[in-house]
Amino acid sequence: MIQSLFILSPTGEILIERHFRGMTPRTVCDHFWERACVSLNHHGGVSTASTAAGFNPLALYDSLPPIMEIPMDGEHGSGGNGNGSTIYLFSILRDGLSYLAACPGEISPLLVIEFMHRVADIFVDYFGSPADESAIKDNFSTVYQLLEEMVDHGWPLITEPNALQAIIRPPDVMGKVRT
């Protein structure tokens, strides 16, 4: 089951943080971002340190694995993640945003990765393409409503666009003018 979902901007800022079961400390995002920024970063670019050393950027597209195992010690833990337990952090990159799902136990990786892709697809359906940082910030409350309907206590529930649109109306120009 998914304990928490984070959406990070291209600079590593946490745009959305949604907890479904307990609390995952924000330090998991720091662990992710540190690994994403080493030499070949998560966004397919190369840091200045690696280019100065003569690194060939075409040798690898992305050195960051889609699943990371992050050990949690007692000082970080809440929600049952302390005392030497592990968080599995799943990540995808869409429209410049990093989607992270924190899971406290082993779970089918394809379930979590496919779910995060479905979330990104729903955001494109609702906010247009690209569903980037500005789209998320402009539609903050709709994003939270969608996540509330899409996940039930950590398990993916409703991921079909038509079913979601029957529950949550997509934002329109008139709705933005009224608010």
What features would you describe in this structure?
The strands form two sheets. The protein has a five-stranded antiparallel β-sheet. The N and C termini lie far apart (36 Å). By secondary structure, it is α+β, with helices and mostly antiparallel strands. It has one domain: Beta-Lactamase (2-Layer Sandwich). The longest helix is centred in the middle third of the chain and has 19 residues. The protein is built from seven helices and seven strands, in the order E-E-H-H-E-E-E-H-H-H-E-E-H-H. A hairpin with a 2-residue loop joins strand 6 and strand 7.
Q: TL;DR?
A:
This protein is an alpha+beta fold and 179 residues long.
Strand neighbour order, sheet with most strands: 2-1-5-4-3
Mean pLDDT across every amino acid position: 81
Quickly count the helices. Answer: 7
- What Rg do the Cα atoms give? 17 Å
Distance between the termini: 36 Å
Shape: globular
The string of secondary-structure elements, in order, is EEHHEEEHHHEEHH
Count of structural domains: 1
State the helicity in percent bands.
Answer: 25-40%
Query: Structural class from helices and strands?
Result: alpha+beta
Share of β-strand residues:
15-25%
Largest sheet: 5 strands, antiparallel
Instruction: Report the CATH topology name.
Output: Beta-Lactamase
CATH level 1 class label = Alpha Beta
User: What's the architecture in CATH terms?
Assistant: 2-Layer Sandwich
